[in-house]
Amino acid sequence: MVATEESKVEKITEKLEEIHMDDSNAEANNAAEEGAEDNNGGEATAAAKKKKKNKKKKKNGPKTQTEPPTVPVSKIYTTKVYPLGECHDYINENTWRTTSEEKRAEERPKEDDYNDVRRAAEVHRQVRAYARKIIKPGMTMTEIAELIENGTRALVEENGMESGIGFPTGLSINHCAAHYTPNAGDKVVLQYDDVLKVDFGVHVNGRIVDSAFTLNFNPKFDKLVEAAREATYAGIKEAGIDVRLCDIGAAVHEVYDSYEIELDGKTYDIKPIRNLNGHTIEPYKIHGGKSIPIIRDSGDETKLEEGEQLAIETFCSTGRGYVVEDGECSHYARSTDSGFVPLRLARAKSLLATINKSFGTLPFCRRYLDRLGEEKYLMGLRNLVDAGVVTAYPPLVDTKGSYTAQLEHTLLLRPTCKEIVSKGDDY
Ligand SMILES: [Co+2]
């Protein structure tokens, strides 16, 4: 999900092919042991026999993912210790953090939290590996959303507020940059010439991993997608403890300045979408207190701080570089600071009870209400939005005919290093 300038102000209110998930250390150990065996001239010692037996047993265990993805990551990582993201040392006046014993000690009590975020990230990587391979023109938006959501629910072992989907699966196409997911009855079919932003979230104990990528099928859009990727990585590189938000925006903007794209004989500047922002993430709150600009001259000198979790996301466009709300709304979230609001409609009250129980402050969409068995809830939902108890997040669009792209990662500003938790082999 993305933070808009407006929301910042209105805060009030896998026949199954196998993907090997063995970690490289295990593979290295096996290779080393096999090497040792060869040195014995192939003699089948008691130890080697035992090892082979163990190996076979291990193979029968569920250590690989299926297609489509159905195996919980906890059945793959049986020690329940999930892989670290990509870690980067802090730079400049923060280089001391890398080797600080004191900072290492501060991280120890937070390991369980980090492990929750990493479990969510592993689910994201495994679900998106399948999504990136299988999403093709001709599929409906509903099929795409369901394959991602079914995968997420299974791999994270969805369980009430303990683990599940972090927010609705964004499947925004072309000039729509964000916050579109199909509602019931949606008949939109993905086309060859579409540029699709896939933005989905996974949470474990409220620790949300928010990561997004862009798919294009016609290579004429490659530059646009590349621009979003490079700009986001520039933002990620810039981010760190004590770094001013405006400096991240400037680093991102500078990359976009170097990009243009030729589409059907016409050349377009690739611009950042100036009213879309990255954001901090807090437990069960996709939009924490800070918005991270993707333009220079934002003037925001607020600094990032130790311990913060960030979604660094940038969007670019061949249009105006500015989005407005447009079209049927699908995304909603309970407002986190609405306080007590008296509700007159009984239907609004019962709907709010469902929202509180099923989503808390996590964003949801109409399809999620449908699957819970809620019916004829639009009036009640409208009532909750009007009362300020629930915030509606309609699709955000640039000018018609334009194309937009996005890339997003979730980062942890750990005391000793910057960890890109959602980083994978794909992006
Ligand atoms: Co986001």
Automatic annotation (TrEMBL):
<feature type="binding site">
    <location>
        <position position="313"/>
    </location>
    <ligand>
        <name>a divalent metal cation 2</name>
    </ligand>
</feature>
<feature type="binding site">
    <location>
        <position position="408"/>
    </location>
    <ligand>
        <name>a divalent metal cation 2</name>
    </ligand>
</feature>
<feature type="binding site">
    <location>
        <position position="287"/>
    </location>
    <ligand>
        <name>substrate</name>
    </ligand>
</feature>
<dbReference type="InterPro" id="IPR036390">
    <property type="entry name" value="WH_DNA-bd_sf"/>
</dbReference>
<keyword id="KW-0645">Protease</keyword>
<dbReference type="GO" id="GO:0070006">
    <property type="term" value="F:metalloaminopeptidase activity"/>
</dbReference>
<feature type="binding site">
    <location>
        <position position="199"/>
    </location>
    <ligand>
        <name>a divalent metal cation 1</name>
    </ligand>
</feature>
<feature type="compositionally biased region" description="Low complexity">
    <location>
        <begin position="26"/>
        <end position="47"/>
    </location>
</feature>
<feature type="binding site">
    <location>
        <position position="210"/>
    </location>
    <ligand>
        <name>a divalent metal cation 2</name>
    </ligand>
</feature>
<dbReference type="Pfam" id="PF00557">
    <property type="entry name" value="Peptidase_M24"/>
</dbReference>
<protein>
    <recommendedName>
        <fullName>Methionine aminopeptidase 2</fullName>
        <ecNumber>3.4.11.18</ecNumber>
    </recommendedName>
</protein>
<comment type="function">
    <text>Cotranslationally removes the N-terminal methionine from nascent proteins. The N-terminal methionine is often cleaved when the second residue in the primary sequence is small and uncharged (Met-Ala-, Cys, Gly, Pro, Ser, Thr, or Val).</text>
</comment>
<dbReference type="GO" id="GO:0051604">
    <property type="term" value="P:protein maturation"/>
</dbReference>
<keyword id="KW-0479">Metal-binding</keyword>
<dbReference type="InterPro" id="IPR050247">
    <property type="entry name" value="Met_Aminopeptidase_Type2"/>
</dbReference>
<comment type="similarity">
    <text>Belongs to the peptidase M24A family. Methionine aminopeptidase eukaryotic type 2 subfamily.</text>
</comment>
<keyword id="KW-0963">Cytoplasm</keyword>
<feature type="binding site">
    <location>
        <position position="210"/>
    </location>
    <ligand>
        <name>a divalent metal cation 1</name>
    </ligand>
</feature>
<dbReference type="InterPro" id="IPR002468">
    <property type="entry name" value="Pept_M24A_MAP2"/>
</dbReference>
<dbReference type="InterPro" id="IPR000994">
    <property type="entry name" value="Pept_M24"/>
</dbReference>
<feature type="binding site">
    <location>
        <position position="408"/>
    </location>
    <ligand>
        <name>a divalent metal cation 1</name>
    </ligand>
</feature>
<dbReference type="InterPro" id="IPR036388">
    <property type="entry name" value="WH-like_DNA-bd_sf"/>
</dbReference>
<dbReference type="GO" id="GO:0004239">
    <property type="term" value="F:initiator methionyl aminopeptidase activity"/>
</dbReference>
<dbReference type="GO" id="GO:0046872">
    <property type="term" value="F:metal ion binding"/>
</dbReference>
<dbReference type="InterPro" id="IPR018349">
    <property type="entry name" value="Pept_M24A_MAP2_BS"/>
</dbReference>
<feature type="domain" description="Peptidase M24">
    <location>
        <begin position="117"/>
        <end position="320"/>
    </location>
</feature>
<dbReference type="GO" id="GO:0005737">
    <property type="term" value="C:cytoplasm"/>
</dbReference>
<feature type="compositionally biased region" description="Basic residues">
    <location>
        <begin position="48"/>
        <end position="61"/>
    </location>
</feature>
<keyword id="KW-0031">Aminopeptidase</keyword>
<feature type="binding site">
    <location>
        <position position="279"/>
    </location>
    <ligand>
        <name>a divalent metal cation 2</name>
    </ligand>
</feature>
<keyword id="KW-0378">Hydrolase</keyword>
<feature type="region of interest" description="Disordered">
    <location>
        <begin position="1"/>
        <end position="72"/>
    </location>
</feature>
<dbReference type="InterPro" id="IPR036005">
    <property type="entry name" value="Creatinase/aminopeptidase-like"/>
</dbReference>
<feature type="compositionally biased region" description="Basic and acidic residues">
    <location>
        <begin position="1"/>
        <end position="23"/>
    </location>
</feature>
<dbReference type="InterPro" id="IPR001714">
    <property type="entry name" value="Pept_M24_MAP"/>
</dbReference>
<dbReference type="GO" id="GO:0006508">
    <property type="term" value="P:proteolysis"/>
</dbReference>
<feature type="binding site">
    <location>
        <position position="179"/>
    </location>
    <ligand>
        <name>substrate</name>
    </ligand>
</feature>
